[in-house]
Design a protein that fits this description.
By secondary structure, the protein is mainly alpha-helical. The protein contains 5 helices and no strands. The protein has one domain.
């Protein structure tokens, strides 16, 4: 069995696919679409690279969809509250804290994954890794 060892530039590009989402999140707050668009652009820019790079770009992109959905709901709910179209409720705060925890876990997992991928280790996220395997073929 032949074991493929990614080259240095491949490790860097694959790790950057995860870091792109973090940079976009910091630059585009509070608009969730900025993060998703940046990840999509990075994905399309690197889709003709090696399998290793494509796989990690795909996993980074897939991981952004649930985050985008939860952040978008929170964003528009907050807008409705600020415009006075809806009353503040305990359910809003429960959702707010849930989304914050989801974002913090994603942030930590993204940094960990970027560091490990940069070292040449294959990191597959629970659920997202399996979906990535179905989408991305060598």
């Amino acid at each position: 069995m032949i074991v493929y060892t990614p080259e240095e530039h491949e490790l860097e590009t694959a790790a950057n696919s995860y870091l792109m989402s973090l940079l976009a999140a910091m630059a585009g707050l509070p608009f969730p679409i900025v993060n998703l668009l940046a990840t999509i652009i990075f994905y399309f820019a690197n889709r003709k690279r090696t399998f290793f790079v494509r796989w990690h770009c795909t996993q980074a992109l897939i991981s952004q969809f649930p985050l985008f959905c939860t952040n978008t709901v929170l964003f528009w709910w907050t807008v409705r509250l600020l415009l006075g179209w809806q009353e503040l409720s305990s359910f809003y705060f429960a959702y707010l804290f849930t989304v914050l925890i989801f974002n913090v876990v994603d942030f930590i997992a993204t940094i960990y994954t970027a560091v490990q991928v940069r070292k040449g280790k294959q990191v597959e996220w629970y659920v997202y890794g399996g979906v990535t395997d179905l989408i991305c073929r060598p």
